[in-house]
Amino acid sequence: MKLVNIALAAALASGLATTVSAEVLRFSSFEPPVAHVTKNILTPWAAEVNAASGGELDIQIFPGGTLGRNPAQQLKLVEDGVADIAWVIPGYTPGRFDEGTVAELPFLVPNSTVGSEAMWKLSQSGLLEGDYANFKLIGVMASYPNGLASTVEITEPGALKGQNIRAPGPVMLSAIQSLEAVPVGGITGPTLAESISRGLIAGTFTQFGAIETFRVGDVISHYVDLPLGATPMLIVMNKAKYDGLSEQAKAAIDQYSGAAFSERFGKSFDQNVAEARERILGENEITLLEPDAALTAKWQEAMSVATEDWIAQTENGQAIYDAFKAAIDEAAAAN
Q1: Which of 175, 166, 155 minimizes the C-alpha distance to 225?
Q2: For residue 237, what is the domain's CATH number?
Q3: What is the pLDDT of residues 66-82, one digit of tens each?
């Protein structure tokens, strides 16, 4: 009888062990599953964290707006617990992460690798207040800088006067206004090509990765290749969800987050933009303008008021700008 009881206890223990399941974390992406960021950055990141957790985590990617289609709603999905983690474009939620919009200033971020490294460093400086502290920050990044894609020929900055131009963030919209164009907000990536084809806008601040992802190459005819401002980006996690995880699960997330995530993101993003640029220009009839030093100086002068206004209108604006510029210079020297 004693042997039977021991065997039964062992069987029960074994059964209980097999019913313990990993903590499922839902990771929302508004991009299609085959788009670069989702396929080549977010999905591998989730797999590596899952492996590092020793079976305690099962991070599942929900791409293509499965949990919520609107890119502007991704932050709310995390706040409401619909998603545990999400890729967020702060420019779609004005007023929440205002200090980080420094990355949108023209002629500041040279590429995503440098910009993302500098953004993470800035996030650790104590200068970013807003809603940053309300989330577990997986990554704080910046896109490759946006040029100007349009349906009309634009060379001089004065040619933008009166044109409806879209941008993905409030500071870039301010920069558009400084050029006497009509700034148009509220148009997200998935609706961009339709907005251009319907004539709602004559152009947009964007980069070649987004042009490819959202099929904008079919509807534009010109591109001005200047660093007119990067798009700040975040990967955020519901803080209460993170706080409730085991120490091993937290350690796995931390191992691949922060500076490590920003570095992963920036290098991959830059490589994709370079490859997408070659594909887009090869497959579409787009006139590419790469301004010389004299013309670049004209654009810089015309858009300098956007930087001046941002510093003046942002609390601690000068300190944030100086810290970010120093981080940019440091990262550029190291890469």
Answers
A1: 155
A2: 3.40.190.170
A3: 999 888 899 999 999 99
